[in-house]
Design a protein that fits this description.
Layout (H helix, E strand, L loop, with lengths): L1 H14 L4 E9 L2 E13 L2 E12 L4 E12 L7 E14 L2 E16 L2 E13 L4 E3 L1 E16 L2 E14 L5 E14 L1
Antiparallel strand pairs: 1-2, 1-11, 2-3, 3-4, 4-5, 5-6, 6-7, 6-8, 7-9, 9-10, 10-11
């Protein structure tokens, strides 16, 4: 039932906009993640992007997220650094516990000036107790990855991700941790 709700939320988010931007899929031995992102505008403050995603593990844990991030080049446009801040809603089932969270976070991407097709990216999202609900008290998602632009519309990458929840009166639950490989396709 919960997986059906995640899928319906993903389809609703993906179908409400014509400005499709990217699809990102990554795999590891025991999890798969699918992300969809769509640009919703550009103004003097940066580029806004809506995103929605699903993550499923072989332990039958599920994770859905949706949110908004604003990104812009940091410093001069030649620096190769892009930064962004945003928020995301999180719905998860981990180890038989349900969690809802509203997380704030940010991301950074650096393309090497001498090798612009090679990039390093990272992100961090955090939800404290005041905006984390159900069986959880806190949510943290952190990831880093090394990217290579195969063609302008496709990026292949390897990365490391850790998604965890602090649970009420229980040990912390790690939803996903480890290395993964993936591809991001723009259309």
């Amino acid at each position: 039932m919960l997986l059906r709700n995640y899928f319906a939320l993903f389809l609703l988010t993906a179908s409400t906009t014509i400005l499709a931007d990217t699809v990102d899929i990554n795999l590891r031995d025991n999890s798969v993640q699918l992300q969809y992102a769509a640009s919703v505008g550009r103004d003097s403050l940066g580029t806004s992007e809506l995103h929605a995603g699903l993550l499923y593990t072989d332990k039958n844990d599920r994770f859905g997220d949706f949110g908004l991030v604003v990104k812009e080049a940091a410093g001069s446009s030649d620096s190769g650094v892009t930064g962004g801040v945003g928020l995301k809603g999180v719905v998860a089932s981990v180890g038989g516990n349900d969690a809802l969270a509203l997380a704030l976070g940010g991301q950074v991407h650096y393309s090497l000036p001498s090798a612009p097709r090679l990039g390093i990216a990272g992100q961090l999202y955090f939800s404290p107790n005041i905006v984390t609900y159900r069986d959880a008290e806190r949510f943290i998602e952190a990831s880093a990855r090394l990217e290579f632009e195969v063609i302008p519309q496709a990026v292949a990458y390897v990365g490391y991700r850790r998604i965890s929840f602090s649970l009420i009166n229980k040990p912390d639950a790690i939803l996903d941790v480890g290395f993964h490989a993936g591809v991001r396709i723009a259309f």
